[in-house]
Structures are given as C-alpha cells and as structure tokens.
Amino acid sequence: MFFQFYVNDGKLSCQWYQRSVDAGLGLPFNILSYAILTRLMAQAANLEAKEVIFVGGDTHIYQSHIQQVKEQLSREPFPFPTMKINKKIETVEDMEALEFKDFEFEGYQCHPAIKAEMAV
Predict the structure, then answer these.
(1) pLDDT tens string 6-61
(2) DSSP label of 25
(3) CA angle, residues 32, 34, 35, in degrees to nearest 5
(4) Is 112 inside any structural domain?
(5) Which domain holds residue 69?
(6) Which residues pair with 11 in a beta bridge?
(7) What's the number of domains the chain is made of?
(8) Radius of gyration of the chain from Cα atoms?
(9) For the chain, first and last CA: distance in Å?
(10) pTM of the model
C-alpha cells in the first residue's frame, strides 16, 4: 500500500494505491480506515478533510462471493453518517492515544450483515 496527502485551498485529500484487494470484503474496511486517517491528519494540520481516492491494482471479487456482492449492490444506500473526533489532535502522539470513546458517529444506519466465507 502507498498513500499520499494533498492540500488544496485549505482542504486535505488522501489518495492510496493498493496492489491487491478483495472488493467485497476488504475494500470497504480500507475505505473507512483511510477516511478516518484523512480526518485525523486534517484535524492535526488545521485543515478540512476533502476526499479519499482509491487506486487499485488487482481489485477482485472471488467466485465464491458473487451472490453476496450482487445482494450488496441491490440494496438502497442509506444517507452518509457523520463522524466527530471529540479530542484535540495536534501530534502523532495525540492520534496514538485515541480511544473508541473519542469518536462520535451520528446518523449511522446499516443493512443486515451478509455472510461470506474468507477465500484462501
């Protein structure tokens, strides 16, 4: 994985490249992770978080996950939730000291889980 940050007009963007990723199971977790990292870095730099951009090499869906991916794609998305970081972030040490209770999620909704066996 490789990522870089870019600042334009007081807004921070993050682009990451990933050599290989399971689009059904791994990619959603990666998107969330880089979105949170971007928010943390923006807050530490007194910037506004703007966007997260993914560039993938081997972005794939396993044969055994096709039905689950079709089910996921058939669902109507919910409105995006918001996230607040309830702690001042100024240094890397501040980030390392964060706990789950320091994050506040508002408006989060989800569909029932879709089970898919990990492909090996």
Answers:
(1) 999 999 999 999 999 999 889 999 999 999 999 999 999 999 999 999 999 999 99
(2) T
(3) 60
(4) no
(5) 2-106
(6) 8, 48
(7) 1
(8) 16
(9) 20
(10) 0.87
